[in-house]
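call fold(seq) -> tokens
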Amino acid sequence: MDTNFLLSGRPGSVTGAGAARAFTDGAGAVAALRSGECDGIVGALPFDVDGPAALWEPARLTVDHNPVRPAWPQRHGVTVAARRPEPAEHERRVAEVVARIRAGEADKVVLARALELDVDEALDPLALAAAFANGNAAHNAFAVALDAAGDDFTGQWIVGASPELLVRKRGREVSCRPYAGTMPRSPDPHVDEQRAAALRGSAKDLAEHAFVVDFLRERLAPFCTEVDAPAEPVLLSTGELWHLATPITATLADPATTSLDLALTLSPTPALGGTPSDVAAAMIAEYEGDRGFYGGAVGWCNADGDGDWVVTIRCVQLAADRRRVTAWAGGGIVADSDPAAELAETTAKFGTALRALGADPAIAGS
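ret:
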């Protein structure tokens, strides 16, 4: 029985194999869990909450206390087939969105750009996930088959290494760790320290981060007797980037609430959408079109309702031939955003996927 779901990180790894039944909407999956008709759910939620999900009941769900074994990326011949949009156009869009934010249309909008890549040989999704896991100390990685979303997704996978925990649920205890506010790292230790300090003191990034924390607190409140979030974010790093992050903890009023219930309530967060959520989503659709599964969530939920869901970032989507690959990178736009800096942030974020593919990160630039 082939593995068609993997999520790895510090708590360990979870794999799913086979599919007893599929769900294209979260509500149907939640109903099956609550009725006791299924023993667990794994899969992916799209960025557009009205789009088809890729959720299914696995024939076998395995929880391991160890993360996936990381592997060195295999060297591949990777070429850029298309940039959506071109770098100059991304800067123009950022400038336009900044003007609209200053005019009062929104507070924050996350704009992303994509790279269409051609690889010289078909990729193994699980081997690629192991390469993603090699790029970070926590061995974060995920690989999700998307067939459950319908015929348009047959044979496709989404694979990546998200550092951002959307929600974890164990009994009545809930935790989230939103990321928002980013600075590229430097191989020079002195410069790297300066960049970390600049991010910690950046009014723009602190404001962007606060939108996300406030959103999560508000969305968790109806489900929880208490929600606790520190007044200031902490500074965390991945291989390529510094991030502002806030550890949020909460206690459920009703332990029957599942991790999938919470994931559907919290996704997409302003870290990938914006504020107000509906206005930002409309602007994202206007500039980018349909994001598919980028910016949504991937995760699992067992029969007790416990599980983990992470935000679908630092990822690629594999076409059915596994040789055409799409990668995404975005950044939160607020009134003080600088178009050139926002372009540089997306270029840095592409580095995670390109290194896992064994490609030169420099191809993300212009």
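The longest strand covers residues 108-119.
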